[in-house]
Amino acid sequence: MASEQPGQTLLSLEAFRRLVGAAPGELEDLIARGVLHQPQPGQIALVAGVAAFLAHLRARARDATLSRAATAARDARAEASELALAVARRDAIPDDQAEAAADFLCATITRELSGLPARATRDLRARAAIDQALRQALVGIADELTNS
After folding, report:
1. Residues 6+ away with beta carbon under 8 Å from 83
2. Residue 24, SS3?
3. pLDDT of residue 148
């Protein structure tokens, strides 16, 4: 299993595979790509082999992270394109939700402005004129919101 060379401990390929938990064929692929070196056929230097295998694992993890980031960026660009298209087609939100939002907005504006004439004056004629002007403005706002 292990043999000694001056300054290094050599492990058989199978012993090194068990040590690092490599999948079948993974070490052979790393040897073929020049990542792992065999000082003797079927032998891997312990320290250099572990260092090279860890570097391989780090590179694989970095590549996976970059791949996930690229996928996330691609998905974000696709989502932005879909949103831009929906805005261009004027269907960014479903019609029923748009109507509910417009109804809520009109109700809020009406509620806030309904007491304004009474706060502005005690004169009933002036109050009626202000009330009429506000109602016309509210009708105009509602028309604009429903027609846009």
Report:
1. 92
2. coil
3. 64
- Phi, psi (5° rounding) for residue 42? 80, 10
DSSP 3-state of 5: strand
CB contact at 8 A, 138 and 106: yes
Tell me which residue of 39, 37, 33 sits closest to 59, measured CA to CA: 33
> What are the DSSP E strand ranges found in the chain?
2-5, 8-12, 43-45
Cβ atoms of 78 and 47 closer than 8 Å: no
Tokens for 118? 């009474």
CB-count burial class (<10 Å; 0-12, 13-18, 19+) for 42:
exposed
Q: What is the pTM of this model?
A: 0.47
| Residue that is written with structure tokens 């429903």 in the block | 146
